[in-house]
Write a structure and sequence with these properties.
Calcium-transporting ATPase, cytoplasmic domain N; alpha/beta
């Protein structure tokens, strides 16, 4: 089995630095205001901190560019907030601005470029913070028997490797668009067998739906509604140790199901033998049937009090 994680930068505590005035931040926040993407939440948080969030109304005609950014109209201006790769392909910017973004990426930072009316106007650079329980969760999954763990992210390779080194993941797949994540999940399944995908962003939804088990984070902990709908399991806590807990609980549930099925079959076979020996009766049949049902129900209810190690 394999487990694939969408690299998540929660909690994003602050913007590392901003290569423009508050107007760039205000324009970006106007476009990102309704977005569920974690980078959008970082921009909105920084805009609120700087007091620039009210400078522009919420953008209209907002359209998400799958894995590349978002565009919208702000006071008649076509504003785009997107990745360095998207700007390289579609938005004019100088070699110096490109080199600055390249330098940020080499340092493990994530540059978010902002453009208006087809021109680059500034960039916002975000640093990632690893969840405090991430490394422990990876270690617990490994000790539970999951040997193939990969990190899937749309971030650059330097930023992805920096996070992977901190949490103990060796298989890193960076610069992935949503379609690339979907393909990666399919490739992992072909190589290792059943795949569980963990993610919480809108860009993770296709991969979550494709995985044998899709695990999303709840909206209360920053997960997107689309990711929750695409997943099979939703973790209601932002404590990533709930993931290995859920894995161990599922294994305990399967053991209980197998034990209950085996017990029920054994009771039926025993009563069948009793009938063949001529010692069966209607009341004994009722006792065997109802008694078996009660016992397997009580055995299953033990899972409600199962604690494991969170």
């Amino acid at each position: 089995p394999a487990c694939a994680f969408e690299h998540q930068s929660f909690p994003i505590d602050d913007l590392a630095h901003c290569h423009a005035c508050d107007d760039v931040l205000a324009l970006a926040s106007a476009v990102e205001r309704r977005s569920e993407h974690p980078l959008a939440r970082a921009i909105l948080s920084a805009s609120e901190t700087s007091g620039s969030q009210a400078a522009y109304p919420t953008a209209t005609g907002v359209t998400a560019l799958s894995g590349l950014g978002v565009v919208g109209t702000v006071n008649g201006r076509a504003v785009i907030v997107g990745s360095h790769a998207h700007f390289d392909a579609h938005i004019q910017h100088s070699p110096e601005q490109c080199a600055l973004a390249d330098g940020d990426e080499r340092q493990g930072l994530t540059p978010i470029m902002v453009g208006a009316d087809g021109r680059y106007i500034g960039s916002i650079v975000v640093s990632d913070t690893v969840r405090s329980t991430a490394a422990e969760s990876i270690a617990q999954l490994t000790s539970a028997g999951i040997r193939n763990i990969a990190m899937l992210t749309g971030d650059g390779s330097a930023a992805a490797q920096l996070i992977a080194d901190q949490v103990g993941v060796t298989d890193v797949r960076a610069n992935l668009l949503p379609a690339d994540k979907l393909t990666t999940v399919q490739n992992l399944r072909a190589e290792y067998g059943p795949v569980a995908m963990v993610g919480d962003g809108i860009n993770d939804a296709p991969a979550l739906a494709s995985a044998d088990v899709g695990i999303s984070m709840s909206a209360a902990t920053g997960g997107s509604a689309l990711a929750m709908e695409a997943g099979d399991i939703t973790l209601m806590s932002d404590d990533l140790r709930r993931l290995p807990f859920a894995y161990r609980l599922s294994r305990a549930a399967m053991r209980t199901i197998r034990a209950n099925v085996a017990f029920s079959i054994a009771i039926k076979l025993l009563f069948f033998v009793v009938v063949l020996l001529g010692a069966g009766s209607m009341w004994l049949a009722v006792l065997a049937d109802v008694g078996a049902s009660l016992l397997v129900t009580l055995n299953g209810m033990r899972l409600l009090r199962w604690k494991g190690t969170a």
